[in-house]
Amino acid sequence: IHSERNIHALKDYLVSGYSRKAVCERYGVNNGYFSTSLGRLHRINQMAWKLAPYYRNAV
């Protein structure tokens, strides 16, 4: 996820609680592109969550 507009839209949606429609309109992001990026972020989060136990005691 490299697009600054998409990153800002994701932040406003996930952190600030704005609706998907509002952030897509505000930042000029296509709803389909936003959904794809949200799915990617979700998959990365799941992977990090699954891998975390292997790194907790490694430090």
From TrEMBL:
Keywords: Transcription, Transcription regulation. It comes from the Bacteria. One of its GO terms (biological process) is regulation of DNA-templated transcription. Gene3D superfamilies: 1.10.10.2690. InterPro entries: Adhesin_operon_reg_prot (IPR004356), Fimbrial_Adhesin_Reg (IPR053721). The keyword Nucleotidyltransferase does not apply. This is Transcriptional regulator. It comes from Salmonella enterica subsp. enterica serovar Newport str. CFSAN000835.
